[in-house]
From TrEMBL:
Heme binds at C426. SUPFAM superfamilies: Cytochrome P450 (SSF48264). Pfam families: p450. It comes from the Eukaryota. One of its GO terms (cellular component) is membrane. InterPro entries: Cyt_P450, Cyt_P450_CS, Cyt_P450_E_grp-I, Cyt_P450_sf. Belongs to the cytochrome P450 family. This is Cytochrome P450. Keywords: Heme, Iron, Membrane, Metal-binding, Monooxygenase, Oxidoreductase, Transmembrane, Transmembrane helix. Its cofactor is heme. It is found in: Membrane. GO terms for molecular function: heme binding; iron ion binding; monooxygenase activity; oxidoreductase activity, acting on paired donors, with incorporation or reduction of molecular oxygen. The keyword Magnesium does not apply.
Length: 478
């Protein structure tokens, strides 16, 4: 407004400088008003905008969005606050703070998420629903993750994995682990949830799920060509695909035994014992996206870490070969075999600790409260920083060294939280673990490998840390 008046009243250079001074003074006054003796250090910047641009800039770099957090921790210390997307965020860096938040989920804190994430996966997703719906939906979604269901999943996944590794071995060419694991986990999830095996339909759904995933951390403006716009349009197509699938099953045209069918068989149940169609569709999408992206990334990181640590790789291979020798030739893995993978389980844990495929766990304060003596205002976003906790040298000796044997000892409570904790603990935790164990068993017991691109840069615009190269490798059969 001041600049528009300049031609009539002031020299434009003077007004520009004057405007900057006013903004600076207002910002300084705002910080002074909102500060206190128990104030958390940090910079809020201007109302709404805050440091959003800096966060998006980090997300768009090859260092990844966590570089934004890392820099501010250097500037302000372990505890700091910032403002992004119009919300004040506090990053909680230790197990004591994590315990306080996780133990009071739904009491003093609720799930925190950016608008684009809720729009992408749906308001009835388990990630977004309020407390009164969360307990019911979580209970009804638990069947695919029961021990009985996991036992069936292990055999199917093992067969699928063996076939695909055999094809790669015969081809003899380099392949990208991230692409391989993304397709593998996606196909396995779609088979388990909806019995989809048709290649063309799988690839159509996969493309749309990728667009939805990309939109989860974007600016929520419906402008054609943007990640948000593409994600919302992809969500609409997926919803229509799921709706048609549900219609065919209700008409009796198809009725395979899977998760979707088990949900539809509850149609005559009372509302407290079933999911409506919107809840089914939103959570199908959530389970696919969450199950694919995080597990596939962890599988990629496991290959990289084991390649860099040959002693751990050799020890894991020795354990896995002993399991292979104890079974008839060509026999599939069973859930019981995974229980005998003691060192393998530690490799999975160490991979999850170091990769941090979930960088932090967002919550929103429902009331004014204190964490570790710091004042938290109602409505502030409280982010439990799993990455900071997992790399804390006071908790883990040489935290940047890949050392599965560190899990020989019991860890301090809330010092290992790759799946969160409390009533919102990741529903697919056990499925992710068995998926990784089956993958590592077949990889290490059947092959050695070389990594063909040692680039450590991260993929741009990804809300989950993934190597830009995807970790290409060449297999060599043992």
């Amino acid at each position: 407004m001041l600049l528009s008046l300049a031609p009539n009243h002031y020299d434009i250079n003077f007004v520009a400088v004057f405007s900057v001074v006013i903004i600076f003074l207002v910002s300084k006054a705002w910080r002074r008003v909102t500060s206190g003796k128990n104030d958390i250090p940090g910079r809020l910047g201007l109302p709404y905008l805050g440091e959003t641009i800096s966060f998006l800039s980090a997300t768009n770099s090859t260092k990844g969005c966590y570089d934004f957090v890392r820099l501010r921790r250097l500037w302000y210390g372990k505890w700091f606050k910032t403002r992004m997307f119009g919300k004040i965020h506090v990053f909680v860096p230790n197990p004591e703070g994590a315990r306080m938040v996780f133990a009071n989920d739904f009491v003093h804190f609720n799930k925190g998420y950016v608008k684009s994430m809720a729009d992408a996966v749906g308001e009835k997703s388990l990630l977004c629903v309020p407390h009164e719906s969360h307990k019911r939906i979580r209970r009804l979604l638990s069947d695919p993750f029961s021990m009985n269901s996991l036992s069936k999943f292990v055999k199917k996944f093992d067969k699928m994995l063996c076939e695909r590794l055999k094809n790669l071995e015969e081809g003899g060419k380099s392949f990208v682990v991230l692409e391989f694991s993304m397709k593998l986990t996606f196909d396995a999830m779609c088979n388990m949830l909806m019995s989809i095996t048709e290649e063309s339909l799988l690839r159509d759904i996969e493309r749309d799920c990728t667009s939805v995933s990309d939109a989860m951390l974007s600016i929520p403006f419906m402008i054609p060509g943007t990640r948000y716009y593409k994600g919302i349009k992809a969500r609409e197509r997926l919803t229509e695909t799921f709706r048609e699938m549900i219609s065919r099953r209700r008409s009796g045209k198809e009725s395979p035994e899977d998760f979707l069918q088990s949900m539809l068989q509850r149609d005559s149940y009372p509302s407290s014992e079933k999911l409506d169609d919107s809840e089914i569709m939103d959570n199908l999408l959530t389970l696919i996206v969450a199950g694919q992206t995080t597990t596939a990334a962890a599988m990629m990181w496991s290959v990289k870490f084991l390649d860099e640590n040959r002693e751990a790789q050799d020890k894991l291979r020795e354990e896995q070969l002993s399991i292979t020798r104890s079974k008839p030739e060509g026999a599939s893995l069973a859930l019981e075999d995974l229980n005998n993978m003691s060192y393998g389980s530690k490799v999975v844990k160490e991979t999850l600790r170091m990769s941090n495929v979930l960088l932090w766990f967002p919550r929103v304060a429902l009331n004014d409260c204190k964490i570790e003596g710091f004042e938290i205002k109602k409505g502030w976003h409280v982010n439990i920083d799993a990455t900071c906790i997992h790399y804390d040298p006071d908790l883990y000796k040489d935290p940047r060294q890949f050392d599965p044997s560190r899990f020989d000892e019991m860890q301090k409570p809330y010092s290992f939280i790759p799946f969160g904790s409390g009533p919102r603990t990741c529903l697919g935790m056990n499925m992710a673990k068995v998926t990784m164990l089956v993958f590592l068993h077949r990889l290490t017991s059947g092959y050695k490998w070389t990594v063909d691109d040692l680039d450590v840069c991260l993929e741009k615009k990804a809300h989950i840390p993934r190597l830009r190269s995807g970790c290409p490798i060449t297999l060599k059969p043992i």
